[in-house]
Amino acid sequence: ALNAWYREHLNVGGGCDGTGEGVVNQWVWTTAGGPMVFAPFKADTDYFAPDKQFIINLRVTDLDSLLDQLNAAGIAIITKDEWNSPETGSFARIHDPEGNAIELWEPPAA
Q: Which position among 11, 37, 75, 85 has the lowest Cβ density within 10 Å, counted as fewest Cβ atoms?
């Protein structure tokens, strides 16, 4: 059920290729070119809920349109002006049905 939620609302997870078209291999997720960030947090971070061990950060190409779709689906969205800057781009946060934080990031235009 959780994999289906990610596919439906974010077009990510096994079987997604970044274009909205499913691929044959249900265990592979192919991403579009661009930066990928790996940034471990300290154990006592307050960046996400203390009962969670990670946050997923997804790079998106049209954050405003995605937020409109998520809002229409009844998914709560958190935004804060201080998260955004011309140097780093725009951010929003949602949570999956299990309460895992998902940060949505639209990098600044090149």
A: 37
What range does the domain containing 54 cover? 37-110
Rounded Cα distance, 31 and 25, in Å: 14
Q: Is residue 91 within 8 Å of 46, Cβ to Cβ?
A: no
Task: Give the DSSP H or E segment for 58.
Answer: strand 56-59
- List the CATH number of the domain containing 73: 3.10.180.10
Q: What are phi and psi of 89, to 5 degrees?
A: 105, -155
Which residue bears the tokens 């061990």? 53
Q: Mean pLDDT across the stretch 52-63?
A: 88
At 9-55, the pLDDT tens digits run 988 766 655 555 555 556 566 667 777 777 778 888 888 888 888 88
Q: What letters, b where the CB count within 10 A reaches 16 and e where it falls short, cover 77-107? A: eeeeeeebeeeebbbbbbbeeeebbbbbbbe
